[in-house]
Amino acid sequence: MTQSAEKNVLAVDVGNTVTRLGLFSGEELSGTFELTTPERLTADEAWLRLDEILGMLGVEELQGAILGCVVPTHTDAWRQALASACETRPLVVGPGLKTGIRMRYDDPSEVGADRVADVIAARETYDAPVVVVDLGTTTNFEVVDAEGTFVGGIIAPGVALGARSLAAAAARLPMIELRAPASVIGRNTRSAMQSGVVLGEVARIDGLLDEIARELGEDAAIVLTGDGARAMAALLAHETQVDETLTLRGLHALWLTNQRG
User: Which reaction does it catalyse (predicted)?
Assistant: First the structure.
Protein backbone atom coordinates (compact mmCIF):
# COMPACT_ATOMS: atom_id res chain seq x y z
CA MET A 1 0.00 0.00 0.00
CA THR A 2 1.48 3.34 -1.03
CA GLN A 3 1.07 6.77 0.50
CA SER A 4 0.20 8.47 -2.79
CA ALA A 5 -3.31 9.33 -1.57
CA GLU A 6 -1.81 11.80 0.92
CA LYS A 7 -0.04 15.01 -0.01
CA ASN A 8 3.56 13.90 0.41
CA VAL A 9 6.18 16.52 1.22
CA LEU A 10 9.82 15.61 1.81
CA ALA A 11 12.06 17.66 4.09
CA VAL A 12 15.80 17.14 3.63
CA ASP A 13 18.25 18.39 6.26
CA VAL A 14 21.85 18.09 5.00
CA GLY A 15 24.33 18.50 7.84
CA ASN A 16 28.09 18.26 7.80
CA THR A 17 28.01 14.76 9.29
CA VAL A 18 24.48 13.40 8.84
CA THR A 19 21.72 13.95 6.26
CA ARG A 20 18.18 13.46 7.59
CA LEU A 21 15.04 13.08 5.50
CA GLY A 22 11.50 13.36 6.80
CA LEU A 23 8.35 12.44 4.86
CA PHE A 24 5.24 14.41 5.78
CA SER A 25 1.89 12.96 4.71
CA GLY A 26 -0.56 15.76 5.17
CA GLU A 27 0.45 17.41 8.46
CA GLU A 28 2.00 14.28 9.99
CA LEU A 29 5.61 13.15 9.94
CA SER A 30 5.10 9.62 8.65
CA GLY A 31 8.67 8.44 8.16
CA THR A 32 12.30 9.43 8.63
CA PHE A 33 15.59 8.30 7.18
CA GLU A 34 19.19 9.08 8.10
CA LEU A 35 22.30 8.97 5.91
CA THR A 36 25.97 9.75 6.41
CA THR A 37 26.86 12.96 4.58
CA PRO A 38 29.66 12.11 2.11
CA GLU A 39 32.58 14.40 1.38
CA ARG A 40 31.47 14.67 -2.27
CA LEU A 41 28.08 14.10 -3.91
CA THR A 42 26.87 14.22 -7.51
CA ALA A 43 23.29 14.81 -8.63
CA ASP A 44 23.10 11.20 -9.85
CA GLU A 45 24.27 9.88 -6.48
CA ALA A 46 21.73 12.04 -4.67
CA TRP A 47 19.00 10.78 -7.00
CA LEU A 48 19.95 7.13 -6.44
CA ARG A 49 19.78 7.63 -2.68
CA LEU A 50 16.50 9.50 -2.92
CA ASP A 51 14.89 6.94 -5.24
CA GLU A 52 15.86 4.07 -2.93
CA ILE A 53 14.55 5.87 0.17
CA LEU A 54 11.24 6.80 -1.45
CA GLY A 55 10.81 3.19 -2.53
CA MET A 56 11.43 1.97 1.02
CA LEU A 57 8.91 4.50 2.34
CA GLY A 58 6.34 3.38 -0.24
CA VAL A 59 6.08 6.78 -1.95
CA GLU A 60 5.19 6.92 -5.65
CA GLU A 61 5.43 10.69 -6.04
CA LEU A 62 6.12 13.85 -4.06
CA GLN A 63 3.90 16.90 -4.18
CA GLY A 64 6.51 19.08 -2.53
CA ALA A 65 10.02 19.17 -1.11
CA ILE A 66 12.21 21.52 0.90
CA LEU A 67 15.97 21.40 1.30
CA GLY A 68 18.01 22.81 4.15
CA CYS A 69 21.71 22.34 3.42
CA VAL A 70 24.75 23.60 5.32
CA VAL A 71 27.18 21.93 2.89
CA PRO A 72 27.33 24.33 -0.11
CA THR A 73 28.89 21.75 -2.45
CA HIS A 74 25.88 19.43 -1.92
CA THR A 75 23.09 21.94 -2.49
CA ASP A 76 22.82 21.67 -6.27
CA ALA A 77 23.04 17.87 -6.23
CA TRP A 78 20.12 17.55 -3.81
CA ARG A 79 18.16 20.31 -5.55
CA GLN A 80 18.40 18.47 -8.88
CA ALA A 81 17.50 15.12 -7.32
CA LEU A 82 14.45 16.56 -5.57
CA ALA A 83 13.35 18.36 -8.74
CA SER A 84 13.37 15.02 -10.57
CA ALA A 85 11.15 13.40 -7.92
CA CYS A 86 8.80 16.26 -7.18
CA GLU A 87 5.73 17.65 -8.95
CA THR A 88 6.70 21.21 -8.02
CA ARG A 89 9.97 23.10 -7.77
CA PRO A 90 11.69 22.17 -4.49
CA LEU A 91 12.28 25.00 -2.05
CA VAL A 92 15.79 25.68 -0.77
CA VAL A 93 16.23 27.47 2.53
CA GLY A 94 18.07 30.72 1.96
CA PRO A 95 17.61 34.40 1.11
CA GLY A 96 14.24 35.13 -0.46
CA LEU A 97 12.36 32.39 1.38
CA LYS A 98 9.66 33.65 3.73
CA THR A 99 10.36 32.52 7.31
CA GLY A 100 7.68 34.30 9.33
CA ILE A 101 10.09 34.89 12.22
CA ARG A 102 11.48 38.13 13.61
CA MET A 103 15.27 38.17 13.82
CA ARG A 104 17.49 40.39 15.92
CA TYR A 105 20.58 39.37 13.99
CA ASP A 106 23.11 41.63 12.27
CA ASP A 107 22.88 39.76 8.96
CA PRO A 108 19.96 37.27 8.76
CA SER A 109 21.46 35.73 5.59
CA GLU A 110 24.28 34.32 7.75
CA VAL A 111 21.88 32.12 9.74
CA GLY A 112 22.17 28.52 8.52
CA ALA A 113 19.20 26.53 7.25
CA ASP A 114 19.24 24.18 10.24
CA ARG A 115 19.22 27.10 12.67
CA VAL A 116 16.27 28.74 10.90
CA ALA A 117 14.32 25.47 10.95
CA ASP A 118 15.09 24.88 14.64
CA VAL A 119 13.81 28.34 15.57
CA ILE A 120 10.60 27.95 13.54
CA ALA A 121 9.76 24.57 15.05
CA ALA A 122 10.66 25.70 18.57
CA ARG A 123 8.36 28.73 18.32
CA GLU A 124 5.50 26.55 17.10
CA THR A 125 5.99 23.76 19.67
CA TYR A 126 7.15 25.37 22.91
CA ASP A 127 6.24 28.40 24.97
CA ALA A 128 8.75 31.23 24.62
CA PRO A 129 11.35 31.95 25.81
CA VAL A 130 13.07 28.84 24.54
CA VAL A 131 16.65 27.77 23.88
CA VAL A 132 17.40 25.08 21.31
CA VAL A 133 20.67 23.15 21.64
CA ASP A 134 21.37 21.34 18.35
CA LEU A 135 24.17 18.78 18.61
CA GLY A 136 26.23 17.80 15.58
CA THR A 137 29.53 18.75 13.98
CA THR A 138 28.92 22.03 15.78
CA THR A 139 26.91 22.59 18.95
CA ASN A 140 24.46 25.38 18.15
CA PHE A 141 22.40 27.33 20.65
CA GLU A 142 19.38 29.22 19.26
CA VAL A 143 17.71 31.70 21.61
CA VAL A 144 14.09 32.85 21.25
CA ASP A 145 12.97 35.52 23.70
CA ALA A 146 9.61 35.89 25.46
CA GLU A 147 8.20 37.83 22.47
CA GLY A 148 9.09 35.03 20.07
CA THR A 149 11.98 36.90 18.47
CA PHE A 150 15.13 35.04 17.45
CA VAL A 151 17.72 37.10 19.31
CA GLY A 152 20.82 35.15 18.30
CA GLY A 153 22.79 32.21 19.57
CA ILE A 154 26.10 30.45 20.04
CA ILE A 155 28.13 28.22 17.71
CA ALA A 156 30.75 25.95 19.28
CA PRO A 157 32.70 22.85 18.18
CA GLY A 158 30.67 19.67 18.61
CA VAL A 159 31.70 16.78 20.84
CA ALA A 160 32.66 14.52 17.92
CA LEU A 161 34.72 17.29 16.35
CA GLY A 162 36.55 17.74 19.65
CA ALA A 163 37.39 14.04 19.81
CA ARG A 164 38.62 13.99 16.21
CA SER A 165 40.73 17.11 16.75
CA LEU A 166 42.45 15.57 19.76
CA ALA A 167 43.25 12.35 17.92
CA ALA A 168 44.44 14.20 14.80
CA ALA A 169 46.60 16.76 16.59
CA ALA A 170 48.28 14.41 19.08
CA ALA A 171 49.94 11.37 17.55
CA ARG A 172 49.66 9.19 20.66
CA LEU A 173 45.99 9.91 21.38
CA PRO A 174 43.45 7.42 19.98
CA MET A 175 39.93 7.88 18.67
CA ILE A 176 37.49 7.23 21.51
CA GLU A 177 33.92 6.11 22.00
CA LEU A 178 31.80 9.15 22.79
CA ARG A 179 30.32 8.21 26.15
CA ALA A 180 30.69 9.48 29.69
CA PRO A 181 33.41 7.75 31.75
CA ALA A 182 32.72 6.24 35.18
CA SER A 183 34.60 9.06 36.93
CA VAL A 184 35.76 12.57 36.12
CA ILE A 185 39.37 11.72 36.91
CA GLY A 186 40.51 9.34 34.20
CA ARG A 187 42.81 6.46 35.13
CA ASN A 188 43.80 5.64 31.57
CA THR A 189 44.15 7.62 28.36
CA ARG A 190 40.76 6.74 26.92
CA SER A 191 38.79 7.54 30.06
CA ALA A 192 40.80 10.75 30.52
CA MET A 193 39.89 11.79 26.96
CA GLN A 194 36.24 10.84 27.47
CA SER A 195 36.18 12.99 30.57
CA GLY A 196 37.72 15.94 28.75
CA VAL A 197 35.62 15.61 25.59
CA VAL A 198 32.23 14.36 26.83
CA LEU A 199 32.07 15.74 30.37
CA GLY A 200 33.84 18.88 29.16
CA GLU A 201 31.02 19.36 26.63
CA VAL A 202 28.42 18.79 29.35
CA ALA A 203 30.06 21.45 31.53
CA ARG A 204 30.25 23.87 28.62
CA ILE A 205 26.59 23.42 27.67
CA ASP A 206 25.45 23.78 31.30
CA GLY A 207 27.63 26.86 31.76
CA LEU A 208 26.44 28.53 28.56
CA LEU A 209 22.80 27.83 29.44
CA ASP A 210 23.38 29.60 32.77
CA GLU A 211 24.87 32.60 30.97
CA ILE A 212 22.00 32.71 28.46
CA ALA A 213 19.43 32.74 31.29
CA ARG A 214 21.38 35.52 33.01
CA GLU A 215 21.47 37.61 29.83
CA LEU A 216 17.79 37.00 29.05
CA GLY A 217 16.86 37.83 32.62
CA GLU A 218 14.60 34.78 32.91
CA ASP A 219 14.63 31.01 32.61
CA ALA A 220 13.75 29.47 29.26
CA ALA A 221 12.56 26.07 28.11
CA ILE A 222 15.57 24.06 26.91
CA VAL A 223 15.18 21.73 23.94
CA LEU A 224 17.89 19.33 22.76
CA THR A 225 18.01 17.92 19.26
CA GLY A 226 20.59 16.41 16.92
CA ASP A 227 23.24 13.71 17.36
CA GLY A 228 23.19 12.04 20.76
CA ALA A 229 20.62 14.45 22.18
CA ARG A 230 19.02 11.88 24.48
CA ALA A 231 22.35 10.76 25.96
CA MET A 232 23.47 14.36 26.45
CA ALA A 233 20.19 15.32 28.15
CA ALA A 234 20.77 12.61 30.75
CA LEU A 235 24.12 14.17 31.69
CA LEU A 236 23.11 17.84 31.91
CA ALA A 237 22.26 19.54 35.18
CA HIS A 238 19.51 21.55 33.48
CA GLU A 239 16.04 20.16 32.92
CA THR A 240 15.63 19.64 29.19
CA GLN A 241 13.29 18.22 26.60
CA VAL A 242 14.57 16.01 23.77
CA ASP A 243 13.01 16.62 20.35
CA GLU A 244 14.71 14.47 17.71
CA THR A 245 12.59 15.65 14.74
CA LEU A 246 12.65 19.38 15.53
CA THR A 247 14.68 20.43 12.48
CA LEU A 248 12.63 18.36 10.03
CA ARG A 249 9.38 19.77 11.43
CA GLY A 250 10.79 23.27 11.12
CA LEU A 251 11.61 22.67 7.46
CA HIS A 252 8.08 21.39 6.83
CA ALA A 253 6.59 24.42 8.60
CA LEU A 254 8.75 26.63 6.38
CA TRP A 255 7.43 24.83 3.30
CA LEU A 256 3.85 25.38 4.46
CA THR A 257 4.51 29.07 5.13
CA ASN A 258 5.80 29.62 1.63
CA GLN A 259 2.92 27.68 0.04
CA ARG A 260 0.46 29.96 1.81
CA GLY A 261 2.50 32.95 0.72
Answer: (R)-pantothenate + ATP = (R)-4'-phosphopantothenate + ADP + H(+)
